[in-house]
Amino acid sequence: MKILFIRLSFLIFFLAASTLQSYPQVKLDFMNNRTPTHSEVIEMYEYLAANHSSARLITGGITDSGRPLHLFVISGDRDFDPVSLKKKGKSIILINNAIHAGEPNGVDASLKLADDILNNRDNLSEVLENTVICIIPVYSTGGFLNRSPYNRANQVGPAEQGFRANAANYDLNRDFVKADTRNAFAFMKIFHKWQPDIFIDTHTTNGADYPYVITLIPTQFSKANPHIGSYMREEMSPELYSMMEKTGYEMIPYVQTMRGDPRNGIISFMDAPRYSTGYTSLFNTLSFMVESHMLKPYHERVLSTYHFLVSVAGFANRNHREIKEVREKAAESTRKQEIFTLEWQLDTSRYDIITFRGYETAYRKSNVTGQDVLYYDHDRPYTVEIPYYTYYKPSLEVENPEAYIIPQAWHEVVTRLKGSGVEMSRLMADTTLFVDLYYIEDYSAGSRLISGRYPHSNIKLRKERDSVNYYRGDYVVKTNQAANNYIVQTLEPQGTDSFFRWNFFDPVLNRIEYFSTNFFDSIAEELLENDPELREKFLERRNEDSEFAGNARAQLSFIYENSPYFEKTYRRYPVARFNKTEGLSLEYNYR
Questions:
Q1: Are 60 and 96 in contact (CB under 8 A)?
Q2: Which end of the chain is less congested by CB atoms within 10 angstroms, N or C?
Q3: DSSP label of 80
Q4: Chain-centre distance of CA 551, in angstroms?
Q5: Are residue 284 and residue 412 in the same domain, yes or no?
């Protein structure tokens, strides 16, 4: 019996050892200008999860490539339940990599971060005292599989990299609200399950040349909840800049220039909800996009990103109580918020002054085209004080209703609301409600394809109050939620990235019913006889407009469009705004 036990123990040990050995160790090669393949990335995370009980590799859904979207979680007390972790007061950091798969520096940086924390290099495991690290190893799995040395013509290294678009040719960093991809739904599942306190998206720049290896886009503080915006601007961002300077990788705000030259000033990027940080910040997550410089050696881009991730983890660990308090205040104020800004305008009358190091520009004659080509002269560096335009002001605001009513026919919108954690109820019976309605008076149809759609612009609305029939199963979205900002931004037609703007409600822009001239002529005569006001409007138009007076179809159309026969739903935005009126409440109609 003893011999049998020994043999079984040996067999179990042998099988376990064989399992561990089937995974490669974490062997990163970014110092030699190489980034791992998708299979190598996942195998290295599998190795870490198999060898460390404080790590776990899980999946959050399937992407457009058919590969799962993985999530690697590092939890010092081996608790992998996000609800439990929140109750313990842990700060949860979510790091997203390779949304543009040709920009893989975050992939290598996150692997190095995970390996160093789990093996306590430089005492990094200390950050796990109050912090949980969640890493999406590769977001654009399809783009990452599409490797080539030629995917990024303007980027120095790595030797091979992925493609900017995903497997379905979507730019995933334009897809967070419209969510046309399975990647976006998989991200929603992860994000709303873990509800991170801090979100970081890792990128590489396109654009100007300057000495800095790394730049930063914090979510635009003007549009963030005031508690979040002031904390990020006054407390968190300054400390992160200071910490990064000590690592040898001095950081600067993302270089979006005013009139083409950094010396004219740089502009704080407005991250609309279509972008990753624009989406996550709608839920009061402290959100950052880090951009390493495309022309710096690949290993420098990886190391600068790595040091930023370490800096954020250290900050979160030291300030976990303050972060929790700020987010709780933000959630409570969002539930009670009444006025929301739908569009923002840069305030050029206000700016901060920052120090900027750059290169003088000059022109050389192209040996290819024979024309002048701009270049940055590294032998002529400069250091100047420049304006940083980081203030925005509201250009369009709206007061939120008590609730939005969404007919169940618009299931694509409902699906996205549910995916984003919005609480909804459904009408229990057919009913008629007196609601506020929008009509689309005018809009500019999109002429340029953006990530698979033609978004509308210049949207003009007419408002009316009317009674509308609703049916059992239609949806009620109350605006007493921490998700209010997302709800208003997507359901108000004039929102920067509203569902209407992204074509989800285009069918209401179609005329469905028309009339036959010969049959409607007698009806039109009867309408004019019975409606003196319509008759007066008609005769006034005919007397003032000779072209109208000579066009029988136009005259009948005028009468038709001002009659009860004209379809009331034409250009009527289907999502209604509901506010309580005397003697009318939704409370008994939905659950």
A1: no
A2: N
A3: -
A4: 50
A5: no
CA distance 235 to 353: 18
What does the alpha-carbon distance between residue 29 and residue 164 come to, in Å, rounded to a whole number? 22
Q: Which two tokens stand for residue 301?
A: 């881009």
Sign of the CA dihedral 138, 144, 149, 150?
negative
Residue-wise pLDDT for 60-117, tens only, equals 899 999 999 999 999 999 999 999 999 999 999 999 999 999 999 999 999 999 999 9
E strand or H helix that includes residue 359: strand 352-365
Whether 584 is covered by a domain: the verdict is no
pLDDT band at 591 (very low <50, low <70, confident <90, very high): low
Q: What's the domain count of the chain?
A: 4
Q: Do 100 and 243 lie in a common domain?
A: yes
- Cite the DSSP H helix spans in 69-165: 82-87, 105-118, 141-145
Tell me the pLDDT band of 10, cut-offs 50, 70 and 90. very low
Residue 343 located in a structural domain: no
CA distance 4 to 128: 42
Can you give the residue range of the structural domain that contains 375? Answer: 353-393
Q: Which SS3 state, helix, strand or coil, does residue 320 take?
A: helix
**Residue 44 in domain:** no
Residue pLDDT, tens place only, 507-565: 999 999 999 999 999 999 999 999 999 999 999 999 999 999 999 999 999 999 999 99
Asked if residue 175 lies in contact with residue 181, where contact means CB atoms within 8 angstroms, the answer is yes
Q: What is the DSSP string of 14-28?
A: HHHHHHHHTSPP---
119 DSSP 8-state letter: T
Give per-residue burial for 440-457: e unless 16+ CB within 10 Å, then b: beebeeeeeeebbbebbe
Domain check: are 243 and 306 in the same one? yes
Q: Model pTM?
A: 0.93
Same domain, 405 and 300: no
Among 200, 138, 181, which Cα is nearest to 163's?
138
Quick one: 146 and 175 in the same domain? yes
